[in-house]
Amino acid sequence: MKITENKWKEIVGYYEELKQTSMIGSVNSTGQPNITPIGTLLLRDDCSGFYFDLFTKELSDNLDQNNNVCILLVQTGKLFWFKSLLADKCKTPSGIKLIGSAGSKRKASEEEIELLRNKIKYLKALKGYNTIFGDLSYVRDINFTDYFIINTGKMTCKL
């Protein structure tokens, strides 16, 4: 379904409240699909977002050849699933698939770096923080055009 301005606001609100896993799907030059987990996806207010291009060589190579992406936001919160199974319905979608296109790899702005650091500040005291998030040099922008709610049968909830 095409993303409208109002629907995008709902998607962003959903994403901000989500205990989730994000995965980006891409294809290589021979058409082989690839899924990459991404923990640094940030959504903007204008049907776009960006992610930090960290440890994603295969994804980066694929996007340099074919910039079409599918991002899957999956609700992984145990409490969400317990309540949904108990009630036999989901109050919010169990997941959303976003369709779009990625831009070229570019240097991250200070504002983008600060946005991510604020989002993950609770991790800063952990030993592996600098290993994973020490180099936030590059990002890719993503422009989204379509979305689909993940089907969970009669428990499916519209956004």
Query: What's the CATH topology label?
Result: Pnp Oxidase, Chain A
pLDDT average, as an integer? 92
Cα-atom radius of gyration: 16 Å
Query: How much strand?
Result: 25-35%
CATH superfamily: Electron Transport, Fmn-binding Protein, Chain A
Number of strands: 8
One letter per element, helices H and strands E, the order comes to HEEEEHEHEEHHE
Shape from CA axes? globular
Terminal Cα separation, in Å?
12 Å
At the first level of CATH, the class is Mainly Beta
Range of helix content = 25-40%
Structure commentary:
It is a single chain. By secondary structure, this protein is α+β, with helices and mostly antiparallel strands. The protein has helices at 5-17, 57-65, 78-87, 110-119, 129-133; strands at residues 20-27, 33-37, 42-43, 48-52, 68-75, 95-102, 106-107, 138-149. A hairpin with a 4-residue loop joins strand 3 (42-43) and strand 4.
Fold blueprint:
Elements: H1 5-17, E1 20-27, E2 33-37, E3 42-43, E4 48-52, H2 57-65, E5 68-75, H3 78-87, E6 95-102, E7 106-107, H4 110-119, H5 129-133, E8 138-149
Quick description:
With 159 residues, this protein is of the alpha+beta class. The chain contains five helices and eight strands.
Which key phrases capture this entry?
159 residues, alpha+beta, Pnp Oxidase, Chain A, eight-stranded antiparallel beta sheet, 5 helices, 8 strands, globular
